[in-house]
Design a protein that fits this description.
The protein has 129 residues and is of the alpha+beta class. It has a single domain, classed as HIT-like (HIT family, subunit A), CATH 3.30.428.10. It contains three helices and five strands; from the N terminus they run αβββαββα. Strands 1-2-3-5-4 form a five-stranded antiparallel beta sheet. β1 and β2 form a beta hairpin. α2 packs across α3. The radius of gyration is 14 Å and the shape is globular. The termini are far apart.
Length: 129
């Protein structure tokens, strides 16, 4: 069964894309822990990160690094935190979260951003990648 991320990749569900290549897609998390919270997904639907081949894993990590560096240029933060949880959506995804404290990695946090905020932020990050 297709996941919500597969539907985003296919363009069936709208998203705020940050960056894309042949194998991966980055888009803003719709319920962000922090301003700039971005998800990086492999376009191929695989449930669990350690089920990826070594090549797929490397592709996703290199892609995520590139996106993280773009976020870091865009959002004022101490670091970009990275989390792989994988329980909510059965499609490998990496959370890139601008952090200033450990509390920013708390997934019970959620910012309330407006549609224009998402559009502006995604464009700013795109321009910094």
């Amino acid at each position: 069964m297709e996941t919500i991320f597969t539907k985003i990749i296919k363009g069936e569900i709208p998203s705020y894309k940050v960056y894309e290549d042949d194998n991966c897609l980055a888009f803003l998390d719709i319920n962000p822990n922090a301003y700039g919270h971005t998800l990086c997904v492999l376009k191929k639907q695989i449930d669990y990160i350690f089920d990826l081949s070594s090549d797929e894993y490397d592709l996703l990590m290199k892609f995520s690094r590139k996106v993280a560096l773009g976020i870091e240029k865009t959002v004022d933060c101490k670091r970009i935190g990275m989390a792989v949880v994988g329980l909510e959506v059965p499609h490998v995804h990496i959370h890139l979260i601008p952090i200033n404290s450990m509390n920013d990695m708390n997934f019970s946090n959620s910012l309330d951003l407006k549609k224009q905020d998402f559009k502006d932020l995604s464009n700013k990050i795109k321009n910094n990648i």
